[in-house]
Amino acid sequence: PPPPPPPPGPPFVDYTEQVVKIMVPLLKFYFHDLIRSAAAESLPYLLESVKHKGEDYVREMWNYICPDLFKALQTEMEPEILAVIMESVAACVETLGVGFIDSTQMEQLTEALRKQLKKNYDKEEERKKARKDEDYDEEVEQTIEEELDQDDYLLGKVSDIIHNLFGVYGEDFVQIFDSLTEYFVAMLAPDRPSLEHQWAICVFDDLIDYAPNSVHKYQGHFLKQLMEFLTDSCPGVRQAAAYGVGALAVKFPGPDSPYKAFCQSCIPRLVNVIQGSTSREEDNITATENCISAITKIFKYIILAENLDEATLLTWFRWLPIQEDEEEGVHIYNFLLDLVEANNPHLLGSDNSNVRDIVMVLAEGIINKTIRAEEEPELMSRVEAFFRSLQANEQLWAGIISQIPDTHKVLLSGQAT
Fold first, then answer.
1. Who's near 371: CB < 8 A, 6+ residues apart?
2. Per-residue pLDDT tens for 318-337?
3. pLDDT exceeds cutoff 90 at 6
4. CA-to-CA distance for 363 and 408, rounded, in angstroms?
5. Out of 206-210, 227-231, 306-310, 349-353, least confident range
6. DSSP codes, 119-170
7. Do the beta carbons of residue 188 and residue 198 sit within 8 Å?
């Protein structure tokens, strides 16, 4: 018989202490940008790899990493490397979870974010002056646009850190967020660039998602802009605003919602975006689908399905299927199946006249992968159950199959069995 395989080598975890002591000092290796970048990228993975050793060991490693990582966050001069360091910080926050970043470290992190936001604010003020200067020309504008792209990227990374801080700490992060709020409020001003509008709205979206009890405290800062930005010329701004409106509906449900009037007053703007002549173009489709999702959430959580008339419901249905945004597609398709399972007469139509179209929408969702079993098994189970219920009525099923494309027939023959 062949000799037994050699025993496995020691797991990587046995080397994490040695590795982290190599990587952390390399955050200050200014002779080579990529070395600093690689060192920063490794840190959340090192923390993840030692979790099974217990909280005390993780805390000890984090306390070794933190001073140099947060110092690099404040001192790194190369924007590309700074972005990687921000990604590392965001990933460390998420990996650690609650209970590892102490109050002193949190203040250091907040101060680093504050400095970055102030730097961004000051740079935009300088760009305003440059555009009014007598030496302003196309070359200056090109330089400004390049800086804006760079700042957009960095602001996105700041937003990622705050997203994870809200995600981990929820309402407990609000007091810390207070010290940063002025910068995000300033970013919402009409004369600030679209990229600032987008990232500021994303941060307030996180507030709605993860600290809903504090929304009332900040609503005067962002609610008006949330509505106005629904029809902004920038797709990213429209997407962020639409997501925020939908989040309000989800977090404050029911006919007595304090945001019922606000959400309902947003519907005409959302409809205008969805029905715009270019709404389905590649650059616009994700924002458009977020608008569809926002209306869906308002229907489901605030207006309630039983209060929707036939014209409204069929208008909504004609916006389907979703093509790109599978995260928002989950909300939309689940609401569609709520209506189907409730035998909503407006949706199903007289003599089930709309059932074929419902089947087509769901089949198209599976084909374009906005409905995926591996990502949303419960949604897929509901779809399959619906198809099986139709197959039980042989005459109805035969009529549906006879009217759909061959590609959909192959799919449905597998889904409904």
1. 326, 329, 333, 362, 365, 379, 380, 383
2. 999 999 999 999 999 999 99
3. no
4. 6
5. 349-353
6. HHHHHHHHHHHHHHSTT--HHHHHHHHHHHHHHHHHHHHHHHHHHHHHHHHG
7. no
